[in-house]
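Example record for the data management plan.
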Amino acid sequence: MVKMYYEKDCDINKLNGKKIAIIGYGSQGHAHALNLRDSGCDVIIGLRKGGKSWPVAEADGFEVYTVPEATQKADIIMILINDELQADMYKQDIAPNLTEGKAIAFAHGFNIRYKQIIPPAGVDVFMAAPKGLGHTVRSQYVAGKGVPCLIAVEQDATGHAYDIALAYLAGIGGARAGILETTMNEETETDLFGEQTVLCGGVVDLMRCGFEVLVEAGYQPENAYFECIHELKLIIDLINKAGIAGMNYSISDTAEFGEYVSGPRVLPHEETKANMRAVLKDIQDGTFAGKWIAENKNGRTFFNSKRDALAKHPMEVVGKQLREQMLWKNDSDLDTASN
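Corresponding structural encoding:
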């Protein structure tokens, strides 16, 4: 059985006397910082001088320093900026100030797995990864709950890395829900695979295909949006609460029958799995990581062109118009209301 940890397994007092530097104050950064502070921890923020998050973190009552300064002052350094920015920042601002006995932490194993960051032998290296967006990590904590988390210790230089990592996860609320033990390699590879084949790549392409087929057949784009995109949240919420069987119990028998007879026609099982295996191979052998690293070094031409094309797609245009007409249009579950 997989190893799970809960509040009874974590001693948050292991963080007593330790200063924690949260590097980045975006989605995850603000949630980790606020939750840890509310749990009684000593938290500072490390940011790029003049960055837009600097006054936000100060307004929330934190002491804010440059990344080199925060690294020097802290015992635990949690890096919570974008994957593609971490390696350069680590080499320039953290590594020169990372002394023996400190701990460096991540919420995703990408840069460790693909050796973009190689910490020195004398420091602890661990992962504390909430399985949820930053605003959810914060809102669940405030509600007295928590988001399930993953823990991995890559390097235990002090002999206390597991205790520190568990205490950190308890501090952000993860022990309330459950902490799953894994490795940075496993977390990275499964996370990338899930994002690309199901959660983001797979779902987005499925929604786009469904929308386009209905519109090309002469149906109203607004109806196509509701049926193929908007209602997806209803289905996912049911699965989240009760699994696929619970979802099937809640939908109509007609819908469930359609699931059995039409789902395999849209996504032929063995063909889909073969394509997924090819994606997994690219993740495992570093092909995908190499492409993403190169993309960021070469101006993101492909990435930006795809993002621009998606923004102009009729399903996005129609969806934006519909959301603006809904009664709850001013509500937002996102960390930014720009959408």
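Summary line stored alongside the record: The first helix runs from residue 27 to 38.
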